[in-house]
Amino acid sequence: MKHEQSIAGELGGSEAQQAASSVPAGGLTPAMTLLLAVAAGLSVANIYFVQPLLDAVAREFRVSAEAIGIVVTVTQLGYAAGLILIVPLGDFFNRRRMVAGQGFLSVAALLLAALAPSLPLLLGALVVVGLLAVAVQVLVAFAATLAGPGGGGRAVGKVTSGIVIGILLARFISGALADMGGWRSVYLASAAAMLVMSALLLRVLPDEAKTERPSSYPALLRSMLLLFVEEPLLRVRALLALLIFAAFSIFWTSMVLPLSAPPLSLSSTQVGLFGLIGIAGSLAAGSAGRLADEGRGQRTTGMALAVLLLAWLPLSFLDLSLLWLMVGVVLLDLAVQAVHVTNQSMLFAVRPEARSRIVGGYMVFYSIGSGLGAISSTTAYGHAGWAGVCTLGAAVSLLAWGFWLATRRLGQGPSPAASEA
User: Fold this and answer.
1) Could you count the other beta carbons within 10 Å of the beta carbon of residue 21?
2) How far apart, in whole angstroms, are the C-alpha atoms of residue 406 and residue 396?
3) pLDDT digits over 169-205, tens only?
4) How many angstroms separate the CA atoms of 57 and 122, rounded?
């Protein structure tokens, strides 16, 4: 019980009990599940809309290909900040009001991005967009609460499917809208969709009766840090998330640059189609959670990381054939999503009473990795072209596989402290 005592010491006794147990607030219907999944997909899509737009944004604001990756990086940094500062509050505050409020504020941030007259204002707006997009994590926790005992896993799985589809469709939708009305139309359309979705969430979702509050906001944040101190599995899996999503972002950030340049000269819509191809790999990764439940999480991780490294070979053949690029996209998305699903499956089994804070802390590393991958990718492209991007991606993937190999004995399962509970 050591870990429960340490967390309870940070939150206060009654608050810790409130964090560990939630009472279903009305039940989860199929229609409500669909609404939560769509809302989650739309929220997370706001982070990824910009990737197919990098070339257009760079041209308008006269920014080099080497420097334009900062647009993706600041969005991810805003998301990382939201995971730390906002997501933990979902354990203690009315989630219906939280997600609706974040949605309405996102409308204002998206409108600012659409109307930004300069790059600094666009960057500021995208920081706020990323900060508020963490509503997706609050929605996942809300789905599990509404489903009640015995139904939380299925509910979380369905909402998570919405997240994955949202990420992958974002690139296609963004490219298609940009071709029709320019890159600013993407954010105008998203603002309109968020306005409608936020109003629906406020109207349809049930209220939660939250009577407890954390002893203090700093105590709540410290309790997240304590989890990293107490759980070696969380530390290992969080660093793996940083590395795999850095590799993921290295590819997806710079891919638009060679595809939109001569001799290929693809349109934004055509570039966005590669996001649809990635859905195949992501859906194939769904069995990774089942393998982790069967105790084969470590083997699944090692195999997926090997596939991630292998994926950079066909990706490097972009100049030879787009078919090779398609093969690489499927392998890359399969590998990254398999590791991501395995990570979460293993972590959820470690500390059931602190899942929200575990997910928030874990996803911070996901966001940091995505941001670092974005800025390093465009820098590599500016200096060495697509070959430099693929070399960087392969190096990060090799580092991830080596890190897993060196730490796999630390990631077998719950810590000794957890096993004493």
Assistant:
1) 8
2) 15
3) 887 888 888 888 999 999 999 999 999 999 999 998 8
4) 10
Question: Could you tell me if residue 159 is inside a domain?
Answer: yes
Q: Are residues 391 and 265 in the same domain?
A: yes
Q: Give dist(CA 400, CA 244) in Å, integer.
A: 7
Of the candidates 412, 400, 402, 415, the residue with the CA atom closest to the CA atom of residue 339? 400
CATH code of the domain in which 108 resides? 1.20.1250.20
| Domains held by the chain: number | 2
- Whole-angstrom Cα Rg for the chain: 21
Pure H helices in 231-354: 232-254, 256-260, 268-284, 288-293, 297-315, 322-348
pLDDT score, position 105: 96
User: 94, 147 in Cβ contact below 8 A?
Assistant: no
Cβ(255)–Cβ(377) below 8 Å: no
Domain holding 257, by residue range, is 223-413
- Helix-helix angle 2-11:13-20, to 10 degrees: 110
- Degrees, nearest 5: CA angle 382-380-392: 160
Tokens 């596939």 belong to residue: 307
Pair 80, 117: CB distance under 8 Å: no
Is pLDDT of 21 > 70? no
H-type helices in 116-261, by residue range?
A: 119-132, 135-147, 152-181, 183-204, 217-230, 232-254, 256-260
Q: What is the largest CA-CA distance in the chain?
A: 65
Give residue 272's identity as a one-letter amino acid code. Answer: G
